[in-house]
Amino acid sequence: MGRVVVDVMPKPEILDPQGKAVARALPRLGFDQFVSVRQGKRFELEVEGDVTPEVLDAAQRAAETVLSNPVIEDVVRVADIEADAAATVASEGLA
């Protein structure tokens, strides 16, 4: 089974009250390194078999039409979870 991850974020010009609430709470909890927070959505789509370019294309279309509200949100990433994790490990020299 393959899995595709889709990340959706509010457009930059859209207010993000949840992100602002988290940003205000972080310093009170000892995390004063962060100056702002934007909260988005993450979807994990499981498919039978491997994640192919056709599957990624279908996930992109689903993200743009069903998983996000294009008026106020941007689809910021559609990726094969396993390939994405392998690339991260390789780039960090952990492979």
From TrEMBL:
A Pfam family reported for this protein in Swiss-Prot or TrEMBL: PurS
GO molecular function, one term: phosphoribosylformylglycinamidine synthase activity
Compartment annotation: Cytoplasm
TM segment ranges: none
Pathway the protein acts in: Purine metabolism; IMP biosynthesis via de novo pathway; 5-amino-1-(5-phospho-D-ribosyl)imidazole from N(2)-formyl-N(1)-(5-phospho-D-ribosyl)glycinamide: step 1/2
Catalysed transformations (reactions): N(2)-formyl-N(1)-(5-phospho-beta-D-ribosyl)glycinamide + L-glutamine + ATP + H2O = 2-formamido-N(1)-(5-O-phospho-beta-D-ribosyl)acetamidine + L-glutamate + ADP + phosphate + H(+)
Keywords assigned: ATP-binding, Cytoplasm, Ligase, Nucleotide-binding, Purine biosynthesis
Signal peptide coordinates: none
A single Gene Ontology CC term: cytoplasm
E.C. code: 6.3.5.3
Superkingdom of this protein's organism: Bacteria
InterPro entries on file: PurS, PurS-like_sf
Record GO biological process: 'de novo' IMP biosynthetic process
Coarse class of the protein's main subcellular location: cytoplasm
PANTHER family for the chain: PHOSPHORIBOSYLFORMYLGLYCINAMIDINE SYNTHASE SUBUNIT PURS
The protein's role, per its UniProt record: Part of the phosphoribosylformylglycinamidine synthase complex involved in the purines biosynthetic pathway. Catalyzes the ATP-dependent conversion of formylglycinamide ribonucleotide (FGAR) and glutamine to yield formylglycinamidine ribonucleotide (FGAM) and glutamate. The FGAM synthase complex is composed of three subunits. PurQ produces an ammonia molecule by converting glutamine to glutamate. PurL transfers the ammonia molecule to FGAR to form FGAM in an ATP-dependent manner.
Family: Belongs to the PurS family.
Subunit structure: Part of the FGAM synthase complex composed of 1 PurL, 1 PurQ and 2 PurS subunits.
Protein known as: Phosphoribosylformylglycinamidine synthase subunit PurS
Gene designation: purS
